[in-house]
Amino acid sequence: MSKNYRISIIGTGNVAWHLSTHLEYAGHTIEEVYGRNLNAAKNICSRLYYAKPVSSLDLTKSKARVFFIMVKDDAIEDVAAHLMLPDNAILAHTSGTKPLSLLTHAH
What percentage of the chain reaches a pLDDT higher than 70? Predict the structure, then answer.
């Protein structure tokens, strides 16, 4: 039996667009979609059941347990440095070329 997670998506590009719907289809709940451009986040949320668009990287009040950074590779470290998460959050990024150590500055 698989576990269903509450997830937040950080980013509004192609990976976020496609993966968010697939995660939801797999039974997970997308809580928020963060975008520097709030309209881009709203656009993704319009395809999801419960997700709220947000424009702040302060996600400390989120109900999500898992947070995916889905931004351009050269922006991962900067986003992680400004990201504020709830205690015991799981943070990952979707880059195939950047190390997980870029996430060590997340709060």
Answer: 90
How far is residue 68 CA from its own chain's centroid?
Answer: 4
Under 8 Å between Cβ of 16 and 9: yes
Is the Cβ–Cβ distance between 106 and 82 less than 8 Å? no
Identify whether the C-beta of residue 80 lies closer than 8 Å to the C-beta of residue 102.
Answer: yes
DSSP string, 15-82: HHHHHHHHHHHTT-EEEEEE-SSHHHHHHHHTTSSS-EEE--SB-TT---SEEEE-S-GGGHHHHHHH
pLDDT (tens digit per residue) in 3-35: 899 999 999 999 999 999 999 999 999 999 999
| Single pTM value for the model | 0.91
Structure tokens at 105: 């500055």
**16: nearest Cα among 5, 43, 1, 26:** 43
Closest CA to 44 of 65, 23, 13: 13
Cα separation, 39 vs 47, in Å, equals: 13
